[in-house]
C-alpha cells in the first residue's frame, strides 16, 4: 500500500489552520520521524494519514485502494497513541480483541497473541488485567497489540512522551524490532535524541507546514530551513 | 410514638413468622420489578450505547427528550397504559389489564428512559477515550457499542440498579394498571398505601421495612460486586 502520497493536504478546525498544504511521498522501508515543536501539527498529520481525521483540503492516497476503509485499516496499518487505550480485560485479551476484529480465527488469535506478548516481554503478565499494568508495560502492550496485526505501516504518536528513561529504552527496542520485521515506521516525537536514535529520515513540521525533509544525518548537521535551525538550537543538554 | 413502636413490633413479628400473605406480596413485587428491569435493560442499554456513539441530525434533541423522560410521572404512564390495555383500547383483546403483566409493562416503560439516559452518559464518557483506538483497530459501530457496554459494565450495574429502585418503589402506575387486587396484583407499594388508609399499620410498616431492606440489599450486593470486580480489573 506504500508509497503514501499526500497531495495539498490541509486540515482546519475551529477556524484555525492546523495542517497547511503538505505535498510529499512517504516511501516504504525507512523509519520516518515527524519532528517539530508542540502544536506544529504532528499528531494531526498522523491522524490524517491513518484516516482518523478527514482532510479539509487535498487528499491522502495509498498506492492500492482496498475493499473498504475499515478493512484496509485493519489489515494494512495500525497506530499506537501517546496514552495507551487499553480495554478492561486481561493483557492477552486486548491483543486477541484486535486480532478478532481483523478477522482471525480464535485459535490463530491465541497463538499469535502469545507470540507477540513474548516478543515484548509481557508473557508472565498475559493474564493480568491490562489496566493494572504500569505505564511502560501498558505502552508495550499497546505496541504488541499493533504488532500482532502485522501492519505494513505503523503510526506512533509520541509513544514515549509519558515514560521514564528505562521504559523509553524498552519501547525504542520494540519499535526497532517491529521495523526489522518489515513494518514501515512513521513516528512523531519532539525528542531530538529519539529522532537521532530511531529515525532514518526526518519530516520537520513547523506551524502546520512541512518545513524540511531530509535524512537524519543531513537534518542534524546541516538543517536548511530557519525554523529547523532555531528548533535544533533550542535543544536542552 | 406508642403507635409506631407497637406497629413496628407487630411488623417484625409478621416478618419473622414469614406470614403467608406478606410473603406472597413480597414475591410478586420482586417478580414484577425484576421482570421490568430485565426488559428495560435489554432495550435501554443498546439504545444508550448507540445514542452515545452515533452522530446524526437531531441527536441532541433526542438526548434532551430522553433525559426529560426520566421524570415521567408514573400516574400518567399508568393512565396511558390503562387506556391501551382496557377492553376498548387498541391492545384490549389481550386481556392484560389488572394482571401482573400490565404492571411489568408499566414499570418497564417508566424505567427504560432512566436506564437509557444514564447509560448514554456513562458510555459517551468512555467513548471519548476509546473512539480513536477502536476506529484505528477497524471496529464498526456495532463492535464499538458492544465493546463499550462491556468495558463500562461496572458503572452500568449502578445504572440498572437505579432503574430497579425506581421500579420497586413505584406505586401510581401499578395501582392504575394492576388494580391492587388481593392475591393477584397486590404488590408492596400498593399494599402499603391500602393498609395505611385502612389503618392496619403493622402490615403497612412491615411491608415498608421489607421494601427498604430489599432495595438496600440489592444495592449493597451490586456495590460489593462492583468494588471487587474493579479492584481486580483496574
Please supply descriptive tags for the structure shown above.
heterodimer; A: alpha/beta; 9 helices; globular; B: 234 residues; mainly alpha
How would you portray this structure in words?
The complex is a heterodimer of chains A (237) and B (234). Chain A has 237 residues and is an alpha/beta fold. In chain A, helix 3 packs across helix 4 and helix 5 packs parallel to helix 6. The longest helix of chain A has 16 residues. Chain A is globular. The mean pLDDT of chain A is 92. By secondary structure, chain B is mainly α. Helices cover 80% and strands 0% of the residues of chain B. In chain B, helix 2 packs parallel to helix 5, helix 2 crosses helix 7 and helix 4 packs parallel to helix 8. The mean pLDDT of chain B is 92. Classes of the chains: A alpha/beta (237), B mainly alpha (234). At the A-B interface, helix 2 and helix 3 of A face helix 5 and helix 6 of B.
Task: Summarize the main sheet of chain A.
Answer: 6 strands, mixed
Give the number of DSSP strands of chain A: 9
Main sheet characteristics of chain B? none
Mean pLDDT of chain A: 92
Count of discrete alpha- or pi-helical segments spanning 4 or more residues of chain A = 9
In spatial order, strands of the major sheet of chain A run: 5-6-7-3-8-9
Provide the helix percentage of chain A: 25-40%
